[in-house]
Amino acid sequence: MKKFFTERKLNILISVSAVAVMILVWVIAYYCIKNDYIIPSFKDTVASMWRDCLISGPFWRAFGNTVLRTLLAFAVSFIIAAALACLGALSKKAAAFIAPFMVFFRTLPTLAVILVLLIWTNPRVAPVIVTALVLFPMIYARLYAALDGIDGGIRQMVKVYKISKRESVFKIYLPLITPEVLPQTGADISLGLKVMISAEVLASTFQSLGGMMQESRLFLEMPRFAALTILAVIAGLVVDIAFSQLARITYKWSRKEGAR
User: Fold this and answer.
1) CB–CB of 231/143 below 8 Å?
2) Closest among 128, 62, 138, 150 to 105, alpha carbons compared
3) Average pLDDT of 100-118?
4) What is the b/e burial string over 133-155, where b = at least 16 CB atoms within 10 angstroms of the residue's CB?
């Protein structure tokens, strides 16, 4: 236990050092270039982060809208991907039928999709669809690999005891892959947040992080633009870490339950 805490403190120290190095590089680059329109100063960025973001009502509305859209896109893509992954794991023919669709969705050019969707929908809906299309094939591939990699003995047990497909999926297969899927869920939501903001920038979505970044770019408010970018990165990191911790707790719980 002592060794674990020592390693944990060392990892935290290394991470803090990495952040300090990035800030140092930023400060050095700023003083070398001396152009606020290319690289804003660290001091002005921090001031803008507090003034224009953290104590600003419009920022929190925009942040909430972007996060809600990201969660909606993730939920839709996850539900559909989970259903198709279960179908593919139960039937190799179904998996072979689904595979070309996954290749198609993976190779769709994001910019072209946004431009088409802006004709069909509106700047609020288009980023949700684009983010869901980006996440969907990734989530499907991960869930299908996890389900397909379940031990053959468990599959044999399901056949011997004639457990229904519905019960085998919801009571055996999905609980088994949960500890493996949860850490990746955080990474998927973080990626979804990044894609969502990029799509909002391209679509100029009103009251969104991407829309605020586009506005900052147009009015050359570079400290505000940098502050919004940093806050988006921090939000993604918080989600990733939260799901990693949740996965660790779930894994410990599943081991205890298995020991019983």
Assistant:
1) no
2) 138
3) 86
4) bbbbbbbbebbbebbeeeeeeee
CA distances from 14 to 235, 239, 242, 243 (A): 21, 21, 20, 21
Residues in the chain: 260
Closest to 207 measured CA to CA, from 87, 123, 149: 123
Angle at 67 between CA 146 and CA 121, to 5 degrees: 95
Which single residue is written with the structure tokens 């002005």? 44
The whole-model pTM stands at 0.84
Task: Name the CA dihedral angle for 118, 124, 127, 129, rounded to a multiple of 10 degrees.
Answer: -80
DSSP state of 1: -
CA of 142: how far to CAs of 147, 181, 183, 248, in Å? 9, 8, 12, 18
The two structure tokens encoding residue 55:
């104590």
Cα–Cα distance between 70 and 210 in angstroms, integer? 12
pLDDT tens digits, one per residue of 138-192 = 999 988 888 877 776 776 777 666 677 677 766 777 777 777 777 788 889 999 9
127: left (phi over 0), alpha (psi -120 to 50) or beta: alpha
Maximum CA pair distance of the chain? Answer: 73
Tokens (6 digits) for 98? 């689904």
